[in-house]
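Troubleshooting entry. The earlier prediction with protoporphyrin IX containing FE gave an output that would not parse, so I re-checked the input for stray whitespace and re-submitted. Clean input:
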Amino acid sequence: MVTTDTQALPLVPRNPLSLRQLLAATREFHTGGEVLSAAGGPVTRIQFGPAWLMPPIVLVTSPEGIGDLLARNHVFGERCIVHDEVRHLAGDSLWVLPNERWVPRKRALQPVFTQHNVRRFGGHMSRAARALVDDWRAAGLQTGLDVDLDLACRRVTMQSLGRSILGLDLNERGDEIARSMHVASSYAADRALRPARTPRWLPTPRRRRARAAVATMLAVADEMLQACRADPTRDAPLVHALAAATDPETGERLSDRDICNDLLIFMLAGHDTTATALTHALWQLGRHPDVQDRLAAEVAELGDRELTPDDVPRLRYTRQVLDESLRLCPPAAGVGRLAVRDLAIGGYRVRAGSIVAVGIQAVHRDPALWRDPLAFDPDRFAADASATRSRWQFVPFAGGPRSCIGEHFALLETTLALATIVAATRIEARSDDFPVEVPYTTVAKGPIPVHVRPRTPPTPCS
Ligand code: HEM
């Protein structure tokens, strides 16, 4: 219950940067938040023109303000323009439904994604990661190999998500699905972030391509759904779970179209994000051999065998490495909401109609909150250090009711992949920076060159 008298609060102060600086900062979606909050404070208003022409953007980068938006006022923070674009392109799904219609869908899907349940469909990453190491072995790992980490991690992620989400070995179809996902998501994000848009009814070539890409992905999802309906023993637990999911209050099932839309959105929401998390973590390990050795020692304690989801609770340091990587390079650099009424955020009044953006990367790197914020130090996430930190200071999966439903799954998958790869190889980064591009989520701007060698010394021949 929010009791603050919103109207008594001061209006969010306007950011003092010049128009040119504001434009530059908002275009740099991931790093812009740090520039804007350094100049305008943790709750700052960016206004490019009169409100009737363009809604004000309010950027929030303080833990208190983020909690206000995502948890305490979540009902009044609606889906915004990016969600609308995806919805028009790919139909209703958990990610894009407006709050009221989202509630029953979330109720039906939540049990599928609990920490306990994701273990049923979350083990594929170990296998995909082992297959990657086998490929490296076949290509000459023994004598050292130069590889592009970006490409390797994208393939591993696609392979693993295809298996766990769709219940399908994507193999050669993986590249086609990856291409389709890229066409669809960059079309939607481009439109959402552009001030002047062509009307939706205009059949532009880009729009036609995006629609065709969505149709390709939906066809794969439908094929799997029908295959699972025909064969209840088929190994596709997530598809079966969605087909069986019911709203716990009304008992209603999801329609086939809804299930396919959700499968598609899980692939879209899960692929680039997980690939970025894995690539960035491995690249950081490639620059910090001491951290890498400590992680390898933790995995070695479990014995030389394929890791399973049940091992994850014992991979505590691996998880710390992952958290630190998600802090420095959060795959979602920010999320946005539309204020549907005046809101109290971080001690200020945000006017109804504003777009309210959470600067995830900015709060993760705020020097007032993190000591030496740009240093890679997984010990920040040791249990005692984390215990005193605000819940809203580290938000790679956002937070509140509309946080990432795939969080447990993504953490499980990425932890297993990191552990599996580092147990078998030594990684040396060949570059000191990690270039990214931000079509909507942050992705590596490959190649990310690394040198890999076997971790254990070769057994001497007798
Ligand atoms: C490291 C990996 C991931 C990160 C960092 C991440 C991050 C996020 C964030 C920040 C949001 C909030 C978006 C918003 O409010 O607009 C979100 C939502 C969502 N994510 Fe993830 N995600 C990851 C992996 C996944 C995976 C693997 C799946 C699918 C299995 C997934 C499915 C979703 C869905 C469906 C939503 C919308 C939830 C809702 O509105 O109820 N994500 N994710």
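This one parsed fine. The mean pLDDT is 92.
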